TrEMBL record:
UniProt keyword NADP, yes or no: yes
PANTHER family reported in the protein's UniProt record: NAD(P)H-QUINONE OXIDOREDUCTASE SUBUNIT N, CHLOROPLASTIC
Name listed for the protein in its UniProt record: NADH dehydrogenase-like complex N
An example molecular function term from Gene Ontology annotations: quinone binding
Entry keyword annotation includes Membrane: yes
InterPro entries: NAD(P)H-quinone_OxRdtase_su_N
Keywords, sorted A to Z: Membrane, NAD, NADP, Plastoquinone, Quinone, Translocase
A GO-annotated cellular component: membrane
Length: 254
C-alpha cells in the first residue's frame, strides 16, 4: 500500500513539474489555457485523496491492533474467570516456621520406635528434617549418615567386611582396602548409655526395591538399629513405614 502511494505521488510530481514549465512559458505570452487550471484541481484532489487513504490505512492498522489487544484481554479474562486455587488440608501447623518444632513430633518418636525403619519425604529446600533428627539425638540415639549414591551393596557395606578401591588417577597401581562393617563397627563403640544407632540415608530414591527391603529388615537383624531413608520429597515432611514402601506388606505390595 505504501509503495503504491509513493509511486503515484512520484508520477503526480513529474507531471506537475512539466505543467509548471509549460504554464510559465505561456504566462510570458499573456494567456493560460483552461486545461491547466483543470489539471491543478485534479492534482489537488488526488493529493488530498492519497493523504486521506494513507491516514485511513494508518487508522485501520491502529484499530486492528486495538481490537487484537482487547480480544486477547477478553480471552484471558474468560479463561481465568472460573479458576479458583485452593490449598486443601491446611491447618495451624502449616503457618509455623520450618525451624520450629511441629505438632507431630510425638507421632514421629512413636513411629520410630514402632516401625523401626521409616521412609521420609522432606521438602525440596531441605532443613525441615533437622528438628526431627535433633529430637532423636535428645532421646539418646547416635547417627550414621550415609548417601545412597556410591553406597554399593547395602548388606555388604553395613554388615560385612567390604573392599574399597581408592582412586588411582591412572598413574598408580589399583589398590584394594578392606573396611569393617559400618553398622557393626559403630555398635561396638557406642557409649553404655546410648539408646541405639540411627542409620540416616539421604537420596534413597536411587536404591532398588531389593536394597530398600534389606534396609527395612536391618532393625530385625540388628535390634539396636533404626533406619531413616529419604525416599523422595513433598511440600511438608511426611513419613511412612519403610516396609510399606519396599513392598513387604500387603499395602505396599498392592
Amino acid at each position: 500500500m505504501d509503495a503504491l502511494l509513493l509511486h503515484h505521488q512520484l508520477i503526480i510530481t513529474g507531471q506537475s513539474s512539466e505543467r509548471m514549465a509549460t504554464t510559465s512559458s505561456l504566462q510570458q505570452y499573456g494567456r493560460v489555457p483552461a486545461s491547466i487550471n483543470l489539471h491543478r484541481k485534479q492534482q489537488h484532489s488526488l493529493s488530498n485523496c492519497s493523504s486521506r487513504v494513507s491516514v485511513m490505512a494508518g487508522n485501520r492498522n491502529v484499530m486492528l491492533l486495538q481490537g487484537f489487544i482487547k480480544s486477547n484481554k477478553v480471552s484471558k479474562r474468560r479463561s481465568t474467570a472460573g479458576l479458583v486455587v485452593k490449598c486443601g488440608g491446611m491447618g495451624l501447623g502449616d503457618f509455623i516456621g520450618g525451624d520450629l518444632v511441629k505438632f507431630d513430633i510425638g507421632q514421629w518418636l512413636s513411629d520410630v520406635e514402632e516401625h523401626k525403619a521409616l521412609a521420609i519425604y522432606p521438602p525440596h529446600e531441605g532443613g525441615y528434617e533437622g528438628r526431627y533428627l535433633n529430637r532423636l539425638i535428645r532421646q539418646g540415639y547416635y547417627f550414621l549418615d550415609l548417601s545412597a549414591r556410591g553406597l554399593g551393596d547395602p548388606e555388604t557395606t553395613l554388615t560385612k567386611v567390604h573392599p574399597v578401591c581408592p582412586a588411582h588417577l591412572g598413574k598408580q597401581p589399583i589398590a584394594r582396602w578392606y573396611f569393617p562393617p559400618e553398622v557393626d563397627f559403630r555398635l561396638e563403640h557406642l557409649p553404655p548409655d546410648a539408646k541405639g544407632l540411627v542409620v540416616w540415608i539421604i537420596e534413597a530414591k536411587v536404591l532398588s526395591k531389593a536394597e530398600l527391603q534389606f534396609l527395612a529388615l536391618l532393625p530385625t537383624l540388628r535390634p539396636n538399629v533404626r533406619v531413616v531413608a529419604e525416599c523422595g520429597n513433598w511440600r511438608k515432611l511426611v513419613w511412612k513405614p519403610l516396609k510399606e514402601i519396599a513392598g513387604l506388606t500387603a499395602e505396599g505390595g498392592a
